[in-house]
Amino acid sequence: MLKKLSLVIALLVVLTFAFTVTSFAGTPIGEYKNLLESLYQEAKEGEWGEAQELAYRLQAFFEKAEKEIKELNPKLYEESEEYLPKVLKYTSEKDMEELSEYYEKLIGAFPSSEKKEGFAGLFDSALIILREGFEAFLIIGALWAFLQKAGQEELKGSLVLGAVTGIAGSVVVAFFLLSAAGKTLPPAALEGLSSIIAAALLFYVSFWLLSKASTHRWEEFIKNTANQALIRKSYWSFFGVSFLAVFREGFETVLFYTALFHQVSPSGFWSGLISGTLGLTVLVFAIVKFGVKIPLRPFFLSTGILLYYLTIKFAGYGVHELAEIGWISETKIGNFGISFISFFPTLENLIVQGILLAIGIYGIGKILTNPSQAT
Fold first, then answer.
1. pLDDT, tens only, 49-62
2. Own/partner pairs, 101-107, CB within 8 angstroms, 24+ separation
């Protein structure tokens, strides 16, 4: 039964993310930028007639989409009000020197955090589903074994129903919340806020995992969870435990992938999701079919540390996105950046990610050096 459940979960994961994760590539901002770049390219090549034709189209497009651009990116709108008339003027006058100056100013106002190419993000994408899915399986599998040991075979069906309902419920709730947010917030704001929320959840999840790094603590957690439901000896008690365990994992997973989708390449995102799902399925199958044992301490320690890396990355991206649309201040401190942790050269990124890094080093170091965590 567990093998079938794991296959159902894997299938549902792939199908639900296909519906819940969306891209904002088709916004007016993208078309606005394409027209501006085309105009400048024609002017550089001396095709002033084509450039002037594009200038008319650009002006008409901006006037038509002005309200929407203002809502999507207030900072870009303000810069456009100042620099776009200059671009149009110097295109009309065929003044390449002045046009170049104001083009650079205007193009610099567009959001700079674009999706990466190739398979960027494959590892991050695979890690999320592998970690979240395996934790859900561990909890359900441990409860399953607990019921078998307690001679309560008739309650096993409640675990299966609770797990399937938890997956469906988490996806539905996350989908509606994200859809509602998408209708009320600019895309960049939704990207930024979802990344910040995901970072906060990952911060909690990382240290929760690390706190369960000893086999004794994990067994104690499962035993307490199961005992609370077994006291009632109720079908719905175990259904509730199973539902809540999987619902939490599912909701977190949808949110994490929503945040990640805007930071990596599409091929990296989907390749990682599929390979992570396949890896999870193989791992679960090996445990159920062949009794393969996974050492819990190394698993919890390694995945906890890797998820903390995503905490720092998501926080950095979220801060940058909110600064891009003017929701928070942005103080430049250089021209360098560290892409794999989404560090942008601003004081705000340095403070937020620096604090998270310091907390992570201290917390992980304390857990690793604490003798009580070793067993």
1. 999 999 999 999 99
2. 103/36, 103/40, 105/79, 106/36, 106/79, 106/80, 107/33, 107/36, 107/37, 107/40
Is the pTM of the predicted complex or chain greater than 0.90?
A: no
From the centroid of its chain, how far is CA 27? 20
Convert the pLDDT of each residue in 201-210 to its tens digit: 888 877 776 6
Residue 6 burial by CB count (10 A; 0-12/13-18/19+): exposed, middle or buried? Answer: buried
Average pLDDT, the chain: 78
Those residues with Cβ within 8 angstroms of residue 52's Cβ, 6 or more apart along the chain or in another chain: 91, 92
C-alpha–C-alpha distance, residues 330 and 319, integer Å: 9
> What sign does the dihedral 172-115-128-15 (CA atoms) show?
positive
> How many other C-beta atoms are found inside a 10 Å radius of the C-beta of residue 211?
16
CB 207 within 8 A of CB 363: yes
Three-class secondary structure of residue 59 per DSSP: helix
Residues 338, 153: Cα–Cα separation, whole Å: 53
C-alpha–C-alpha distance, residues 190 and 73, integer Å: 12
Distance between CA 72 and CA 80 in Å, rounded?
A: 13
> For 213, which DSSP code?
-
**To 10 degrees, what angle do helices 2-20 and 235-261 make?**
40
Q: What phi and psi, each to the nearest 5 degrees, are found at residue 374?
A: -80, -15
List phi, psi (to 5°) of 346. Answer: -130, 155
Cα 20 to the chain's mean position, in Å? 12
For 277, the token pair is 């799902």
Give the three-class secondary structure for 332.
Answer: strand
Start-end of H helices in the chain? 2-20, 28-44, 48-72, 74-92, 96-107, 122-149, 156-184, 187-211, 215-230, 235-261, 266-290, 296-324, 347-369
Contacts of 322 (CB under 8 A, 6+ apart): 188, 189, 192, 193, 196, 328
